[in-house]
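User: Can you help me understand a structure? I only have the sequence.
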Amino acid sequence: MQPYFIPYAGYFRLLAATDVFVIYDCVQFSRRGWLHRNKMHSAAGNLEWMTLPLKKAPQDILIKDLEFRDSARRELLAEARKFPALSKIVADDRGEIASLLFDMTVSPVDYIVRLLRWAAVRLDIPWTVLRSSTLDIDPAKRGEARILAIAAELNATTYLNAPGGVELYDRDNFRDNGIELRFLDTYAGPKQSILERLLTEDPASIRAEIYSQLD
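Assistant: Let's start by predicting it. Here is the structure, written out as tokens:
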């Protein structure tokens, strides 16, 4: 799965349900996706975007090669002030989550994965993670063929994906390659960022919600 910036709770079902979670960072960055942005409640009570300040890059840039703008920390601090859940973090940036959220000295992928790990620890969800860019996969393989190559590299017998992947992959093709293809059901819980929820709700309750909606 691509690494998403402070995603909704349903994303973490993949960590909870798999033996190995692969951060899919060796593919093209989609500017319309959720990698660099997510939604939280504004002061008006509406779900609004919080977006990471990325440097301009070629259309075909890979996720692993993204960079932050030089002014990224300042920009993100200013944007965070729109969201009541982050008000205490903005006011006192010495806490653990503030140091993670506003430290933009690492690459965007390192930054996003670091926040994912923070959330997983808070939720008491196993963290057995590797990045696809560390595997020896033929760059020419794209789409389903690339997923199959990653699965083969890890000797996988099952590939579990989010419900949005149903239209992307062919069960028969996976079966012919010795891999069972499975999908999670659509998540029934709240859709706002896990960061907002962890700052305003009991992590144990969110964890119970996540585990109640595994396949």
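Now, to help you interpret it: The two ends are 17 Å apart (CA to CA). DSSP finds nine helices and six strands in the chain. Let me know which part you'd like to focus on.
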